[in-house]
Amino acid sequence: MADKKEKAGEAAAAQAGNGTQPSLNILAQYVKDLSFESPGAPNSLRARESSPGININVNVNANPLSDTEFDVNLTIAAKAGGDKDVLFNVELVYGGVFRLSGFPQEHTLPLLFIECPRLLFPFARQIIAECTRNGGFPPLMIDPIDFAQMFQARMAEEQARAKVKAS
């Protein structure tokens, strides 16, 4: 009985801080763009002596839809091949509509560029894996991505750009 009263008190204290309990909701998830190319097929499907080089690029963008709703797009592009030969090229833009409410303003950007893509990533990873498998290649299983590090690098880049413009 005491545990229930304690938890109710903690919840009331959290709500008393800014009037609402902070919440992050996923309203929708969708494939915005998906492209797969295998220009050398069927020759590119032959067994190889060595594994091809794979270059993976990841980007995150966020656009406000309203004061509390945001469209977050996770873009993943992967290209496999050697110097001249491209085995496959796959690009996915996977989006999600998120509602953020009750968070302090300074938490909005980290939520949009770290937490939201972290929630989208497993679905995008699965789509990429199935796409490459359906293209005749082994599924491309992308390693987990450190979105916090990506966000910090992006903020440092923007601060450096702002300093250059100011001088």
Write down the overall mean pLDDT: 86
Order of helices and strands, N to C? Answer: HEEEEHH
Distance N to C terminus = 63 Å
Shape field: globular
Structural class computed from helices and strand pairing:
alpha+beta
Number of discrete helical segments: 3
Task: Compute the number of strand runs.
Answer: 4
User: Radius of gyration over alpha carbons?
Assistant: 21 Å
Largest sheet: 4 strands, antiparallel
Strand content: 25-35%
Helix content: 25-40%
Enumerate the strands of the largest sheet in spatial order, edge to edge or round the barrel: 1-4-3-2
User: Which stretches are poorly predicted, pLDDT < 50 over at least 5 residues?
Assistant: 1-17
Task: Please give the structural blueprint.
Blueprint: H1 2-18, E1 23-37, E2 53-64, E3 69-81, E4 86-101, H2 108-134, H3 147-166
Antiparallel strand pairs: 1-4, 2-3, 3-4
